[in-house]
Amino acid sequence: MFTRNASGASSCPSAVIRDRVIAARGLQITRFTGETGVYCNAMMGSRLLKKVCVLDPTGAALLRKAMERLNLSARAYDRILKVARTIADLAACAAILPEHVAEAIQYRSLDREDWAG
What we know:
single chain, about 120 residues, two-stranded antiparallel ribbon, about 5% strand, P-loop_NTPase, Mg_chelat-rel_C
């Protein structure tokens, strides 16, 4: 399923990634059945966010620490939760695990570092 690229890092064939994305979108469509105007994690409002993005104590502590250290806003908090939920969906994981939160925080950190110029 996974192969190594020229640098030695593992990579995943496009077809496998495509299947994971399709499965994750299916989970989200099912999750939001009955919710008017919500079809994916990015569209969640505050009420749904509290219901769908429940963190365990380790994940909550990790996110709280990131909020303090990176001086993030409440809006950034919500975005990180949505991305973490999506990462968990891509991994076919019902719960948002601390590693999903950590990955979402990393993406947010990259966004804030002006790495693109």
